[in-house]
Structures are given as C-alpha cells and as structure tokens.
Amino acid sequence: LTEHELGASPDFKPIYDRLLAIFDSKARIPAVTKQGDFYYNFWRDAQHVRGLWRRTTLSEYRKESPAWETVLDLDALAAAEKENWVWKGSIWLRPDNARCLLNLSRGGGDAVVVREFDVPSKSFVADGFYLPEGKTNVAWRSRESVYVGTDFGPGSKTDSGYARIVKEWRRGTPLAAARTVFAGATTDVSMSARVSDRFGFHREFIRRAITFYSGETHLRVGEKFVKLDLPVDALVDTFKEFITITLRSPWAVGGRTYAAGALLAAPWDTFLAGDHNFDVLFAPAPRTSLVGVTTTREHLILTELDNVRSRLSLLTRAGSTWQRTPLPVPEFGTVSVSSIDEDSDDYFLNVTGFLTPSSLYLGTIGQEKRELLKQLPAFFNSDGLAVSQHEAVSPDGTRVPYFQVSRAGLKLDGSHPTLLYGYGGFEISMTPAYSAGSGAAWLERGGVYVLANIRGGGEFGPLWHQAALKENRQRAYDDFIAIGEDLIKRRVTTTPHLGVMGGSNGGLLVGVMLTQRPDLFGAVVCQVPLLDMQRYSQLLAGASWMGEYGNPAVPAEWSYISRYSPYHNVRPGVIYPRVLFTTSTRDDRVHPGHARKMAAKLAAQNANVLYYENIEGGHGGAANNQQS
Questions:
Q1: CA angle 411, 412, 415 (to 5 degrees)
Q2: At 416, phi and psi to the nearest 5?
C-alpha cells in the first residue's frame, strides 16, 4: 500500500485531506517550557515541515497570536546541510541557560547527532561539544565538561545497543581523552548520567540499568560514585534537601514495610548516614496509582489515577511533617501538570478528554483561580457523543476497565463499527485524550471508539503491570479478548464490525489477537510492531525488553513466549481478518523486519494483507505531518 494509494483512494481522499488540514492547522496549543526569560516551543506545520524552534515571552504567549522569535529553523538547516534532520530535543546548561546540547536525528530514529548551541547568538558553537550519530545520552556537569554515554568503539555498548560506559569529557579535549567514570556489563541495558541543578542543590547521578526495570543509582560524592542503598527497581529523584523514592515492589526496611507504588521522602543527609525512616507521601489503594511528581519552589504536585481518572494532590513541607491537600481538577478527563520554573509556585495545567479539546491553564499554588491561556477549537462535531466506562471480566476473574466513546443512547443492535485500541505493557497507562484525527475520521462518522485498560499497563500501579510480565503475559491478551467479547455481549458490535489497533508493544498485542482469535475481530491495524518473539532480543534495542517478555534463548522462557509469538502462530488454512501493517525503514528501536516477515508469511498463504513502510520517521512512524 503506497502513500499515493492512501491519499488517492476515492473513498478515503476526503478524509485524508481533512486529516492533513487538522495536522497542519495552526489551531494547536504550542507547548512551552521556560528557560531563563523566555518560553520555548518546537512547531511544525505545512510551511515548516521539519519545524521551527522558537521562543516568546509570557505576555506574548497570552495573546491569541503570539509573536515568536525563531531560534533555529530546522527546514533551513536540513536544506543547507543536505540532511533529513528530525528534532529530538534540547539539553540545557543550568543555571545560566546560555548553552544547549541539541539532539538531531537523521530521519527520526533514536540515534542522534549531538551539537552544542549558543542560545544568545542562536548559532552552533564552533569547536563546541559534538558527538556523531549514536544512541547517546549526555548531561552537562558544568559549562566546561559533560558526562557522555555513547559508542566509544568496540566493547563500549551493551547487548541492547546502548552505552555501557559513561565518561567525563572536558571542553577542548578529544573525545578519546575523556575519562571513564563508570562502566557496566555488556548484559546490562544501559548506563546514563543525570545532573540535578535545582533549588540551590547540585547533585550528580549515574543510573546503571541492569534490566528495563531494575538497576542501581549512584550518587557522586567527591570524586567517587556511591551506590545508594535502595531496592533495585526503585526510582529516585531529588527535591531541595530531600530524596524522593518511588517503589515498584514492597520494601521492608527500618522495621516497616512500604507498599509497591508508594512515594517516600527523607532528608538526603540522614538517608546517606544510613537512616531508613521515610515519610510516606503517597500510599496506593487497589484502584489508585501514582502517575508522576512535579516540583515547584515550595511544593510537590502529585498526579494520581483513581479508577483511571486523574486527581492532583499538593504536598507541602511544614516544620517536620508533610501536609497533603487536594488540588481541584475537572471530574472527567485527563490532567497533566508541569512546573514553570524553580523560582516560583506557578504551574501549567493541561486538561483533555475524549470529547473535550485540550485546554492549558496557568495556575499559582495558593490561588484558587487559574488563568485559561490556550484552548483548542473543536476539530470534530461531538454533539450527541458520550463517554462511558465499563468493565469486562477476564478468565481469571479480574475486572478490567475500558472507556467507550459513542453516540449517546447507542442502539445496542450489534451494528456499529467499533475500534478497540490497546497497549498493555511497560507500566504505561491508557487515559482519555482528545484526538482530532480519530474524532473526524471515526467518531463523527458513526464509529465507536474503545480504549482498553488491560494488565501490563500502569493504570493501577506497579502490581497491575507486573501481573502480566513474562510467563504471565497471556493475562494481558486475555483481558483484551474479554473486552472484545464484552462489546459483542453488550450488543455494541459484532465480529465483522470490530477492529483492533495498536503500536509497538500494542502492535504485538494486536498481532496476538490476529493469531489467537481471528474469529473475534474483523480487522487489525498493527503499527511498528514486535511480532517475531524468538528473535526480538537480537534485533536493535530488543535485548532491553527481556525484563518485560523474558529471554527466548532460555528454553523454559521460550516455552511460554512461543505460545503467543504471532510470527510462530500463523497457521495454514486459517482465515485471518484483513490486516494493515505499518512500519518505518528508519525505526532503530523495533526492527521493521518484524512487520516485513509477518506480512510476507501471511501473504504467502493468501491472507488479506496490506503493508505500508515509511522510509523516515523512526519508531514514531513519521517524520512530518504529511507522513503522519
């Protein structure tokens, strides 16, 4: 299936044109981050295909049409250098905010070229820090030195293809002269450095990721890195004089047991002295989980999920205790919060929902009223549409929630085209969000959209994720099947009208649906997928995911992986639903060979297969709006 065919199909052409107009619309909320006196944004539209890195002031940002100052024009840079540059973000030197390390990818892959950029002059630094293309991580230590993890030559990468060694590299010296400060094993996933330079505290960390979910955090003390005494799967951060710890498994220490999913805090000095007495800032319940923590000058803002609905809590240190108060948010939808800078208690609040165009507010802790800064227009007609939440029961009795977006008062006669979307892995939660494309191309035309909250995700915290790891992976697939069957049982749809869609790990999910239950689904969209689970750990970053799926080279683990590996469960004589595979030649995370091989195997037995491989885009599948 070629891009020309996608765009030229008589049935699809009007939708294609409308979606392209939506993607290229300037009626989008430009997400900004504050650095120094300016608010920075990266923007792509029809006139700026590769994008503009630009900035403005808060007073301008408040306006309907702000005046933006261009910092870097990626289209002009790509043309001048004859490179297909794709923006991959910036790493700022704090606290002066005068220099950046820019990550630029050729074609959208994970591998990047790192180049030092002078912000006041808006130009690359001559003879500045520069790293050739690689899966690199870099962190400023000072203006004159950086920590680097990259491909230093033979033996410097892990089996997963990431940095095994971290070096300290001083300005003006060759990379080959950089001093090694930490080295892990080739069987580790990666090594990376992180420097926290906030609230007047400077701390330097190295994370040794042993598996995707376990590792060691080391803190620089003098000239040495000291391993912190923590569970291997705990996540560490820092707020002023406090260490904060997010647990992924129960931790018995200091005469107490702290629950998986809890957030703990303690003063750094007492923790480093061996005191393991912590304040519990968040304690999970069976249907609640911690999504994230945001820091302002004096407070922590916790984003939580309560039965897959967003809640915010405010934590304030008062004397020797922490005070917890709710921060009001809308009853339905998804909220995300981010601090503006470390010098204030201001924050951005983004509110979105299936039928609610995203809105961006500026708030200040202690002030009840929030200022509405930006709001998307409605890109599709939501009149008569409604959101409902339901539960299916998996074969082991687990109640699995899902959201349904459809016409209010939907006639339950089984006739409705229904798209079931899922992911179910890596502790990633599926929450409501406004999708102009889905609304215009599907909901507005009478389709039903369903979002699954199956095990393997993070909707109910680490235990919800861990319930579907490795030998228990089938539970995620059973959950998804149960939702499909529940939609049919409720007479929302029937098999010919029920399609499934997912990408990456979600591509594996719908690949399993294709091969395990071809009788249940009428169509499958399988995006940038894992499908050959016998060789996944030998392809690109695959070895890093063995903590999720298991190691197929171990016979005992291949015995359970082989039972669901889609590529190995294609059977002759089976009638499979129509399937579309999409991938990218430049995907250097999940190898396009997964989709290629699966499409070829199905086509060889005359299955109804569509296949689209974009030559750019990386794991996101697209490098610009038209490709999306």
A1: 90
A2: -90, 125
pLDDT category at 198 given cuts 50, 70, 90 is confident
Report the DSSP beta bridge partners of residue 455: 457
Lookup: tokens for 366: 């202690």
Quote the pLDDT of residue 10.
65
190, 406, 504, 544: the active-site residue: 504
Contact status, residue 343 vs residue 95, Cβ threshold 8 Å: no
Phi–psi pair at 537, nearest 5 degrees: -75, -10
* Contacts of 128 by beta carbon, 8 Å cutoff, 6+ apart: 115, 116, 117, 118, 171
End-to-end CA distance of the chain: 15
The strand pairing partners of 361, in sequence order, are 349, 372
Q: Look at residue 459 in the predicted model and tell me its pLDDT.
A: 96
Structural contact between residues 496 and 484, judged by C-beta atoms closer than 8 angstroms: no
565 catalytically annotated: no
CA distance 356 to 331: 12
619 noted as active-site residue: yes
Residue 7 pLDDT exceeds 70? no
Q: Which two tokens stand for residue 583?
A: 């991938």
* Whole-angstrom distance, CA of residue 427 vs CA of residue 466: 8
What gap in Å lies between CA 167 and CA 138, rounded to an integer?
A: 10
Structure tokens at 234: 């705990």
Residue-wise pLDDT tens digits, 180-197: 999 999 999 999 999 998
Asked whether the CA dihedral 480, 395, 285, 262 is positive or negative, the reply is: negative
As a residue count, the chain comes to 628
Contact 184, 164 (CB under 8 A): yes
Place of tokens 């002009």: 76
CA distance 455 to 468: 6
Alpha-carbon distances of 505 from 399, 481, 515, rounded to whole Å: 22, 16, 16
Mean pLDDT of the residues in the chain: 94
Q: What angle do CA 230, 296, 369 make, to 5 degrees?
A: 135
What are the angstrom distances between the C-alpha of 493 and each of 244, 406, 486, 601? 47, 12, 10, 30
d(CA 49, CA 3): 17
Check if the beta carbon of residue 90 is closer than 8 Å to that of residue 42: no
Q: Would you say residue 25 has pLDDT above 90?
A: no
Q: Judge whether residue 624 has pLDDT over 90.
A: no
Q: Which of 465, 497, 594, 619 is catalytic?
A: 619
Q: Does the pLDDT value for residue 437 go beyond 70?
A: yes
State the pLDDT confidence band at 332, using cuts at 50, 70 and 90: low
Query: 357, 382 in Cβ contact below 8 A?
Result: no
Average pLDDT for residues 358-387, to the nearest whole number? 94
- DSSP bridge partners of 209: 190, 215
Q: Would you state the torsion angle of the CA atoms of residues 62, 47, 110, 615, taken in this order, to the nearest 10 degrees?
A: 150
Check residue 1 and give its pLDDT. Answer: 43
Asked whether 86 and 50 are in contact (CB, 8 A), the reply is: yes
227 close to 236: Cβ distance less than 8 angstroms? no
Nearest to 159 by CA among 192, 191, 190, 186: 186
